[in-house]
Design goal:
Distance between the termini: 15 Å
Organism: Symbiobacterium thermophilum (strain DSM 24528 / JCM 14929 / IAM 14863 / T)
Keywords: Ribonucleoprotein, Ribosomal protein
Order of helices and strands: EEEEEHHH
Strand order of the largest sheet: 2-3-4
Number of helices: 3
Protein name: Ribosomal protein L14E
Radius of gyration: 12 Å
Oligomer: single chain
Structural class: alpha+beta
GO cellular component, one term: ribosome
Number of strands: 5
Number of domains: 1
Helix content: 25-40%
Length: about 80
Amino acid sequence: MRSLAGRDLGTYYVVVRVLDERFVAVANGQRRTVSRPKVKNRRHLEVIGWVDASLALRLERGAKVTDEQIAKALETMPARVYEGV
Protein backbone atom coordinates (compact mmCIF):
# COMPACT_ATOMS: atom_id res chain seq x y z
CA MET A 1 0.00 0.00 0.00
CA ARG A 2 1.12 3.55 -0.64
CA SER A 3 0.00 6.49 1.45
CA LEU A 4 -1.97 9.10 -0.51
CA ALA A 5 -2.48 11.65 2.26
CA GLY A 6 -0.83 13.02 5.37
CA ARG A 7 2.75 13.68 6.38
CA ASP A 8 3.65 10.19 5.19
CA LEU A 9 2.50 10.87 1.61
CA GLY A 10 4.18 8.41 -0.79
CA THR A 11 5.37 6.03 1.94
CA TYR A 12 4.92 2.31 1.29
CA TYR A 13 3.36 0.14 3.98
CA VAL A 14 2.13 -3.37 4.69
CA VAL A 15 -1.31 -3.78 6.24
CA VAL A 16 -0.77 -5.68 9.48
CA ARG A 17 -4.32 -5.54 10.82
CA VAL A 18 -7.81 -4.58 9.64
CA LEU A 19 -9.45 -2.55 12.39
CA ASP A 20 -12.89 -2.01 10.84
CA GLU A 21 -14.47 -1.14 7.50
CA ARG A 22 -12.77 2.28 7.43
CA PHE A 23 -9.41 1.86 9.15
CA VAL A 24 -6.37 -0.41 8.92
CA ALA A 25 -3.11 -0.62 10.87
CA VAL A 26 -0.02 -0.35 8.66
CA ALA A 27 3.71 -0.79 9.28
CA ASN A 28 6.88 -0.41 7.22
CA GLY A 29 9.31 -2.09 9.62
CA GLN A 30 11.33 1.07 10.17
CA ARG A 31 9.58 4.18 11.41
CA ARG A 32 6.26 2.40 11.85
CA THR A 33 6.85 -0.92 13.54
CA VAL A 34 4.58 -3.90 14.11
CA SER A 35 4.38 -2.97 17.79
CA ARG A 36 3.43 0.64 16.93
CA PRO A 37 1.59 0.58 13.59
CA LYS A 38 0.03 3.66 12.04
CA VAL A 39 -3.75 3.76 11.83
CA LYS A 40 -4.80 4.91 8.36
CA ASN A 41 -8.14 5.53 6.72
CA ARG A 42 -8.49 3.14 3.78
CA ARG A 43 -9.38 6.08 1.52
CA HIS A 44 -5.89 7.46 2.14
CA LEU A 45 -4.15 4.33 0.87
CA GLU A 46 -3.54 3.09 -2.66
CA VAL A 47 -3.31 -0.61 -3.49
CA ILE A 48 -0.09 -1.03 -5.47
CA GLY A 49 -0.80 -4.41 -7.02
CA TRP A 50 2.11 -6.31 -5.50
CA VAL A 51 2.15 -8.81 -2.63
CA ASP A 52 5.05 -10.57 -0.94
CA ALA A 53 3.60 -14.10 -0.87
CA SER A 54 5.46 -15.36 2.21
CA LEU A 55 4.57 -12.28 4.24
CA ALA A 56 0.92 -12.43 3.15
CA LEU A 57 0.72 -16.09 4.13
CA ARG A 58 2.13 -15.38 7.60
CA LEU A 59 -0.34 -12.53 8.14
CA GLU A 60 -3.29 -14.64 6.98
CA ARG A 61 -2.34 -17.47 9.35
CA GLY A 62 -1.95 -15.07 12.25
CA ALA A 63 1.73 -15.96 12.64
CA LYS A 64 4.13 -13.43 14.12
CA VAL A 65 5.58 -11.01 11.58
CA THR A 66 8.74 -9.08 12.45
CA ASP A 67 9.78 -5.58 11.47
CA GLU A 68 12.76 -7.06 9.66
CA GLN A 69 10.49 -9.23 7.49
CA ILE A 70 8.32 -6.23 6.57
CA ALA A 71 11.32 -4.01 5.81
CA LYS A 72 12.90 -6.74 3.66
CA ALA A 73 9.66 -7.29 1.75
CA LEU A 74 9.35 -3.58 0.99
CA GLU A 75 13.03 -3.39 -0.05
CA THR A 76 12.59 -6.24 -2.52
CA MET A 77 9.46 -4.74 -4.06
CA PRO A 78 9.92 -4.69 -7.84
CA ALA A 79 11.03 -1.37 -9.33
CA ARG A 80 8.02 -1.32 -11.68
CA VAL A 81 5.75 -0.82 -8.65
CA TYR A 82 7.63 2.38 -7.76
CA GLU A 83 7.27 3.59 -11.34
CA GLY A 84 3.54 2.96 -11.36
CA VAL A 85 3.63 0.53 -14.30
